[in-house]
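Q: Hi! First time doing this. I have a protein sequence and I read that you can turn it into a structure. Is that right? Here it is:
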Amino acid sequence: MKRIWAFFVLGVIAAVAAPAEGKKPTPADRQASDNAKGQTSFAAAQAVDSLLAEELFQPSAGNVELAPKTGDEIFLRRVSLDLAGRLPSATEVTAFALDQSPNKRAAVVERLLERPAFGRNWARYWRDVIFYRRAEDRALLAAGPAEEFLTDQFNRNVPWNEIAARFITATGDIREQGETAVIAAQMGDANDVTAEMSRIFLGVQIQCAQCHDHPTDRWKRAQFHELAAFFPRIALQRVRDAAKRSFEVVSRDAPRGKLGKGGGAARRGNLEHYMPDLKDPASKGTVMTPVFFLTGERLPLGESDQQRRQTVAGWMTAKSNPWFAKAFVNRIWAELVGEGFYEPMDDLGPDRTCSAPKTIDYLAEEFTRHDYDIKWLFRTITATDAYQRESRPRRNPDQIPFTANCSQRLRSDQIYDMLTDAIGAPAGGSEKNKQAQKQQAQRRPAGPRLAFAAVFGYDPSDRRDEISGTIPQALALMNSPLVNRAISGRRPQTDLGKLLASVGDDDEVTVELYLRCLGREPNDQELTVVHDYLRSTGDRAVAFEDVFWALINSTEFLYRR
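A: Yes, that's right. Below is the predicted 3D structure, encoded as structure tokens:
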């Protein structure tokens, strides 16, 4: 433990000695600001817990057993993975354990929200939301720029309504303008763009009404095509640059045939949207007036592409439209607590069953009242008892929701970063080298991270009870040459080799490996198991290689609980 204490002391010294860059708020200013933010979020969190108790945990509901609040060690690991996508460092684990402040959980949330890793983690989440349901793989040209755009937006805490509006109204080169991502992912097809705009930003899967009236919701076929009438003038055309393979989102307001030769995707379709005639598919169909299905607001035919998209963006993100806020709140709640108020998390609507309607209404109204402040929402949810309870296996359909947090399988990016952090391998990118990141973002994602995602990735919008481990995933960790080389204790250049050479205390080595892999210290039973294994093996390097390998291949490594 001496080594961990040394890390803590060095961290404190470094923080105190850090040079100032221009005029910065004083510690008192920052504390006052954090207190103000925390107080509003704490009050909202208490209200959320009270509403959940009123709706779900009354004696009339039967035998309700609420899980106790999780310990500090698990909370720190959970919130670090949820907000920043990384395990806490050894210094952070020790400092958090020593901190006696009653507000230390809120304080660590505040620190995590201010880290660049917060924006990067959630940018990768939303990148996957957008691109897992892409029309074709060429759309991945826009994935890197989308990640860069969202990282910047989240770290600057740009309101969610402004981010959504930029996605809806975007134009430009898809390898330079990250906000083109939703349109690029669907290759500019008006019907597919319509479906994804509604699913992602409203939580309404109106695409089920494209060919017939919705079978389980009130939406009619005409309403889908009226919404699609806001998007027919979007065009995705090739960028005419021999040195750069890309596409450009443009507004096609000129009649077809006046866009020059080569046309491609930019020459397809009409300036207005037509609902196909199911009885006569060869006919042109019925021209549709742009109408927003949730409110009945409409635009006349003939409006420009930008006028249409700017108008519908305003209607979709308006404070008077509750589904915009509910869609975001439900998704973030589901990611943090483990289950949404609506399941699946992107299938909401007036005809859908909500497990706690008063609670989500309150949280969505407060999110709206705080001008769609994303960090406010994270701050509030992580302060609730619902978030801070111990985790339990997923409930059965007849059991009461939110009595415990649910374990979540980590996303591929999180596992990849944890793995590279644990074994001391480069993660394929540097937070410090912004120019290199920008260049990488303008290329199609490639390299080990993409290969890792092909094995461990999943659609973040899928129900979590449908996501499970696979044999290829197990084999990737068990037999990976990268892992097996990196965990060698007999090579002086590996992190484990250096650790064994510099630290003679086996308990200290064990603690270091647990912190690297699991973000916590081993308990007494785990230390005893390692002691026994070291004695039985008789070879210190080989024994710790096996311990390291076992931790990386453990269930706990792949889940946040």
